Amino acid sequence: GIGLAFQKSPVRSLASAKGDTFLFSGRAFDTMKDRGTTLVITSSSELLNNVFEMLTAFADDIFGAMTPKQAAVIAELLSGKTQQEVARKLKKAQPTINRQAQAARWTRVQELLTKFDYFIQQLSL
User: Fold this and answer.
1) If pLDDT is split at 50, 70 and 90, which confidence band does 58 have?
2) Choosing a second label site near 57 at 20 to 30 A (CA), which of 42, 117, 119, 124?
């Protein structure tokens, strides 16, 4: 679970950490347990929480449906590599990487990340 909040002072020890970030994170873990999901993001904004709920449900669906091979391709693409670079690293042909990326819904993953970035920026305004 991820909790989003402004942290006023640096965290020196997780054992003694306090503040909204850690409160929200704890709530996120509780929600994950209750819903049986693998990702929850919470903040102080109810509007953003609703948006994050939609985005994380979508992410759960996408990533939950991936095969291990597709996940390996997506992980490499997420690191900024081109399909050609991924093909070389995984010792596969580029068309194979392209098929794996399409089957894993790579364009949807990119859209999801773009929307997530937008909403994170809105949170920091």
Assistant:
1) confident
2) 124
